[in-house]
Amino acid sequence: MKELLWLIPFLPFAGAFILITTGSRLSKKMVPVIGAGSVGLSALVTLLIGYNFISTSSASFHFTAWQWIDIAGLSPAFAFHLDPLSLIFIFVITFVGFLIHIYSAEFMADDDGYARFFAYLNLFVCSMLILVLADNLVLLYFGWEGVGLCSYLLIGFWYTEEKNGYAARKAFIVTRVGDTAMAIGLFMLFQNFHTLNIQEIAAQAPQLWVTGSNTALIIALLLLGGAVGKSAQLPLQTWLPDAMAGPSPVSALIHAATMVTAGVYLIARTHVIFELAPIAMLVVGIIGAATLVIAGFAALTQFDLKRVLAYSTISQIGYMFLALGVGAWSAAIFHFMIHAFFKALLFLAAGAVIMALHHEHDMFKMGGLKKKLPVIYWTFLIGAASLAALPIVTAGFYSKDQILWLTLAGENGNIWFFLMALLGAFVTSIYTFRMLFLTFFGKEKTHVSHVPGRGMNIPLLVLAGLSTLAGFIELPHSFGHLTIFSDFLSPVLPAVKVQEDFESIEWMIQLIAAGVAISGVYVAQMFYVIKPELSDELKSSAADLHKFWFSGWGFDGLYNFLFVRPFVFLASINKNDIIDKFYDGLVALANLFNRIFSFTQSGILRWYIMGIVIGGILLLSLGLING
Amino acid sequence: MNEVQTVSGLLLAGILFVLGLVGVLIRRNIIFMLVSVEIMLNAAGLAFIVAGSKWAEPDGQVMFIFILTMAASEVSVGLALILQIYHQLKTLDGDAANKMRG
Amino acid sequence: MELSSINILDVLPGILLVTASLIAMLSIAIRRNHKLIFGVTTGSLLGVFIYLIIYATNHSFTVEPLFVIDGFGTFITGLIVLSSLAVSLLSYAYFEQREERKEEYYILLLLATLGSAMLVISKHFVSLFLGLEILSIALYSMVAYLRKREKSDEAGIKYLIIAAFSSAFLLFGMALVYAQTGSMDFKDIGIYMDSVSNNGLPLLLIAGFAMMIVGIGFKLGVAPFHMWTPDVYEGAPAPVTAFIATVSKGGMVVLLVRFFGQINGQHYPVIVLSFTVIAIASMFIGNFLAIRQNNVKRILAYSSIAHLGYLLVAFLAGGALGVEAVSFYLVAYFLTNIGAFGVIAILSDQERDAENIEDYQGLFWCHPKIATVFTAMLLSLAGIPLTGGFVGKFYLIASGVSAQLWLLIIVLAVNSVIGLYYYIKIIAVMFDKPKAFEALALRPRLYLINLITLVVLSILMIWYGVYPQALIERIQDFLK
Amino acid sequence: MQITFYIAGAIAVLSTMMVITRFNIIHALLYLVVSFLALATVFFILGAPFAAALEIIIYAGAIVVLIIFVIMMLNLKAEAVDEEKRWLTPQVWIGPAILSIILLGELIYIISSMETTGSIAQMVDAKAVGKSLYGEYILGVELSGMLLMAGIVGAYHLGRQKKKVIHRFLEDVEE
């Protein structure tokens, strides 16, 4: 059974291949059948393999598709490593990916690039699967760049509009900054271990380095650079809100559920190295905490429905990073999974709303959709509740609560992380319900022109179910005490130790978290349902702050100021400045050489023979001098 | 009867070789170039014979025979080609054949 | 060794090739028929290749005094035969469209293949010289085969004079080496050099090697003996150019590797220095000449100068890894070059070959299949990952690193970047808007043979980029 | 014997110089024959009588005749000589002369550096050559057969004249 592992990434690839080669000739019905079907089959295989994996209670499974090269010690293979961690990831990727494919079949039906869309999407799924299944870092990097490329292609999918192309380039370039750091990190790893096999590195690292070793720290920070870029964390988070230029299913799949969590995966995968570098861990935690708060406040002020969700994604990934930073590995992965469900749900629902309202993105022009779009409303409500972590009934509560608890009680936790996380939770709850109230309550402002059909509703319902039920597989100590998920992951990711004196107060923390979430909902209702004029007052009284948050804490402006402007300035003060001269010089030099050498290529036979004679004389003289 | 030093033989071969080389370089007529190349090949053959005589082995002369074979084929193909070129370009000027350059 | 005591099976590939050329000649004498002789040629090349696959062994034995048949030689012989087969497949359509008499071409092709195949198993000056000259003499006529084209004649005479001229250098050098060492066998020369190396190599020997390098360097087309390359590439018919770029140069590379290995070339700084200079000069000159060139055939010629420079890195690295790298690189290089020139051959019309870069403008929109093949080939030449060319280059670098040839590796890396420019330039032109051009009248049936050949070549090339390990293991097997 | 060697050598060098400097190609070829004859003598003195015979038969007898034959086919007129005169100007000489002098100097220096003890030319007769040729080098002989075949096929293809497709009068006009 497990020998079929290769099928999981191969099926989407085959789908993409068929669509690329025959796309234009396929009938409109066949395109989604191939596109969604291949991912669906892949999900099916994942389920079968997962069942097999669990029922035989294997620790891990290795499958070498083929040895790529084996030259001078470097021997990267197309080899897959399946363990609980990658199993959870491939499950989420294929399953959520499949639902999003089904949704897209209807959502994209009127688009000209129908086949192209599915081809890219399939290619993305394939790359993402390779990324998480890779047993060595070369293959992982291959998948890493593959998803980056697909993300670029899909953000710029509607390439006729210039700003979409701009957003695509921005995403590509900003993540590239992180990728470069990561590539350097990989080279350093190879230099230290003479292998890039992840398992071997994990096994050797504790022997090679002592805890706190400088090399480990540098490598960990470089890997973190890659993770931060891909996962849109501080300070490389600016590309994600703009990436919303892509179609909504793309945002759901790539920029919420899967690709942006690749950074989380990378850190979890290489956690051995991070554990050897406590400072790097701390940095991860700080980045996570800072990101979740900053992005949360930015989300509070957005008008654009999708941008709220984008900031919320950044913020939620901040929670995951925070969890990673305190060593709560399985909590991070748990939150990843739950987040994938409810964020995909929210994006898809948002996409349906936007589609229903003629591509209207502005929440203030929506409203009163509760009656018109009941299915969307209810599913959106479930997703929002999960995002806001409303207690007991939502999955988000269980995953976020675990993180909150461990930031305080985990052995690396501290009160500051906890307070930040709590603040984040409060803000999350406010902006989530602000979004819900603005969109679905109040008066109807834009006419509904398109009611989504079954193809879009079913994925929403399935995801809504998952957003509720998936939380019950991991219940806290204080009630239920169920640890299916963390037990499952325990062979790969060590459990976090809890400081003893906190154990007794776990119920209190939960109570606080629940209270914070509910009060957030109340605040949102206060401002946007009961007394809408209050929000305007607040907005005008703190206009600067609003603007600051609205612009995502001014990061784009800051970067514009720090990097882009000086760059443009340097380039423009003087077009012949030294750097330009240098490159011009290179070009001129190349041209000069070209002309000199071209001159020798005169076409005259005797001249050529002369060249040979000169060469002969040079060789003879060389021999005479050195002989 | 043979007291000739190998060095003298090789020197003679070297001089003839360079003379042939000069011929290739200064003549524009393709036939002359071909003839000059023949002189060089012949000089190389001489060098082989000298070397063979030095070691009292037949290998030098064997090689000379192979060179002879090669020179003969070379000349026949070369002359056929020259005939062709003369028909195309109406000249034997080696420098005139410079349609291709750069 | 008496004729009767030679084991026929040992030299059977050679005998088969000889027989094939004789049959080809006889069949012309009986009845001129292009299809027939094409069938004879491809059939016999295929036969030789199948023989090599079935009976190929990696244990080495010698046929004194001229030949050594070992895994390396057998592997490259197979490669050469396969390349000739591909060239011959590409030739059929090319010559069918032209009114010249076509049949003799195949005899010459078979003979040239024979020459190259003899070259790679040579262990003696005599066989080196004879193999080289069979190859050269057959090539003179092949280059000038299209007699009506002035360019073809011009290329032919240039090639002939320069080849004969450099052969004279090679021969004189060999004579000097023979005069000094008293042997023409590679191994004996190596033994002699070992015995005298303590007080430095004798001048005569060094001079001999220097003059031999002139002859060899000409054949390889490395700087400063490269100047004939672009003119001959341009003037020769496209399939012949493919042949020169691959079989002719490849045979010489292998011979050089063998010779260098037998005399332990790495131990002599003079020899290493000479080749280092040649390698660096070739890389730079080749790439710089190509960047502003607008003739595709010439671009490929210049690129081949640079590629031979790259190859010399692995050659200088030597050792098992170096030989592996050379073997792998040759496979990738052969596939890509034949593919690239095959594309040129397909697109050529009766008057001239499709060599101007404008001929390729918008090719993607008129002939997407051909353009895809060409793009794949160019990317491989540029060394983009997941192509055979990338793995080959990676192999070269790995072998260079293990021999610590840092200077050469840096130059190689710099040149790979320069090279990217002109390969991408051609690809960019193909993506351009098509100029108002009358769709090329490709003759469907003929065109099919070429297309199938090209597609097979591209698939192989990509296959070796995605899954090179099979080939690497096969090479390692052969080189044991 | 030594003196004969030097005389023959000198004749060879002198006549070769004449070959490369003559304007009239027939004269040059006659000098070439002289040069080959002198070289044959040198071969003989060096102890290679078989090679000496071949030199006369093949080089002087066959190759030179072949070249003369082609020249007659080309039917070169008096202008050819004038053309040669125009081409062979002093400035053409400069570059090649410098290069050749350097090369010659290096060759002479290198060859003279050879240790001379025991390097005396010795006799190798035709029988030994024949035994070697048809003994150990038999495969080489076979291969040289292929070499000749390549030459013949090539020369046949290239040398064949085009079929005359246009009318005789028109062709005359064209020429």
Can you walk me through this structure?
Chain A is mainly alpha-helical. Chain A has four domains: 1-177 and 244-260, no CATH class; 277-541, no CATH class; 543-574, no CATH class; 576-626. Chain A has helices at 7-22, 30-55, 84-107, 114-133, 137-155, 162-193, 198-208, 214-230, 239-242, 248-257, 262-269, 271-275, 278-300, 305-325, 329-356, 369-372, 374-388, 395-409, 415-440, 454-469, 484-489, 506-530, 533-541, 543-550, 555-573, 578-600, 605-626, and strands at residues 61-67, 77-82, 474-475, 482-483. Chain B is mostly helical and 102 residues long. Chain B has three helices and no strands. The model of chain B has no long low-confidence stretch (mean pLDDT 88). Chain C is globular, with a radius of gyration of 21 Å. A two-stranded antiparallel ribbon of chain C has the order 1-2. The longest helix of chain C has 32 residues, at 150-181. Chain C is built from 19 helices and two strands. Chain C is 76% helix and 1% strand. Chain D has helices at 2-21, 25-45, 49-74, 78-87, 90-112, 126-134, 138-159, 168-174. Helices cover 79% and strands 0% of the residues of chain D. Chain D is globular. Chains in contact: A-B, A-C, A-D, B-C, B-D, C-D. The interface between A and C is large, with 34 and 51 residues.
Shape of chain C: globular
**Helical segment count of chain B:** 3
Q: Return residue spans of chain B where pLDDT drops below 50 for at least 5 consecutive residues.
A: none
- Arithmetic mean of pLDDT of chain B: 88
The poorly predicted ranges of chain C are: none
Number of helices in the DSSP assignment of chain C? 19
Largest sheet of chain C: 2 strands, antiparallel
Shape annotation of chain B: elongated
Strand content of chain C: under 5%
